[in-house]
Amino acid sequence: MLYRVTDPTGHITHFESASSDRSKAIIAVSISSTFTIPRGSFMLPTFCDLHLHAPQFLYQGTGLHLPLMKWLDEYAFKAEERIDGDHDLARRVYQRLAERLIENGTGAVLLFGTIKEETNLVLASVMQQAGIRALVGKLSMDISTRPTYTEHSASASLASAESFINNIEALMAPLPPHQRLVQPVLTPRFVPTCSNELLEGLGQLSARTGVMIQSHLAEARDEVDWVRQERGIDDFEVFEKANLLTPRTVQAHCTYLTPSEMSRLAEHGTSIAHCPLSNAYFSARRLPLREALHAGVKIGLGTDIAGGYSANVMGSMRWAVGVARMREGARIEGENVGPKEDAENAHAETNLGLDWLESMYMATRGGAEALGLECGVFKVGAPFDAQCLKLFDPETGRGVGALDFLDLESGSGDMTLSLEIVEKWWCLGDSRNRTDMWVQGRRLGQKTIV
């Protein structure tokens, strides 16, 4: 068993075996404030959701029968405009979203908001109060199929983006540095809603301020075709020319990138938010995940509410493994697993599958690395962002929630928490297994640092 200690700022100062002399000495003088992981439970870093549209939580789980561009017109833009016009509704939606994120073990999240600055400040305030690490993106879009939902000009959009950055900094300024959980993110929605002037301005603003960037890249056939028709080049080149592919950038989806573009993405240091569930609905292609990893691209997982119907990162992990295994099956059967260039490239004999442990990494440390955060790992100096998961009752051997351990219940099984037992949780577990959660050393729902 390992023992850890956090300082008053919520950073880990000691992490080693509980049986070591130093751990024993620390325990002896701090037994009253010690949290002991119960037998049958384990600790895991909190999940990191790399792609979630906060206002779309209003209608999650509906409207998934349409292609992307029509879906945006019929559902997304209307819902976002409605929330921009009703801050009471916005606060209710965002508070419930925060509750669901905590329920699902998400401690850090990269959020798309709406176009109005004030509404995004509501979102930032709610996430800060909930104790969730949140990178909040005020949408930048000067082009729209909905005339009432646009910023109308590149200059107005850029001014609003810079004002939003300044207001988030002002919102966080009164707090000690370790309690500043919210950051602003520059958020051009995607190429079809942004003029070249706006994109170039955002690239310059990010370079000047160091603020992160998020958007959608090579997401779906109708989106890719629209960009080629209107701009004469692929959206990858549009972002590249605007200096928006940087080590501070997270691009969602990327299912239509060619192998050469994937390599260039890695050279830029840009990360991918892999959203396998929403890709199943809105993209005719699956992300070439193994090839992207081989190319050196940093990858985390996103739920993509509401293009994906679940705010639970566990669903994203399971879908990521399932989709990758289907790609590997297609490779074995000699089927084309991606663009023509993929079939001819050097990884033709590489296993394209993904195992559950790799998906756990992407859901925790992988996402944190994409965001430049120090969480997602237990080590000295890292913030203590953790969830405690109970798998079975050590007295009876009975599993918690959807888990059944019949050998343990009969007394014939080994109650040591093995990888096999944890894998069962990965496949079948849910929020009923989550007993505690901490972000920056603070147990959520409480005011004290533990």
UniProtKB/TrEMBL annotation:
Pfam families: Amidohydro_1. InterPro entries: Amidohydro-rel, Metal-dep_hydrolase_composite, Metal_Hydrolase, Metallo-dep_hydrolases. Keywords: Hydrolase, Metal-binding, Zinc. Its cofactor is Zn(2+). Residues 42-419 form the Amidohydrolase-related domain. GO terms for biological process: guanine metabolic process. GO terms for cellular component: cytosol. It comes from the Eukaryota. Gene3D superfamilies: Metal-dependent hydrolases, Urease, subunit C, domain 1. One of its GO terms (molecular function) is zinc ion binding. PANTHER family: GUANINE DEAMINASE. This is Amidohydrolase-related domain-containing protein. It comes from Dentipellis fragilis. The lineage of its organism: Eukaryota, Fungi, Dikarya, Basidiomycota, Agaricomycotina.
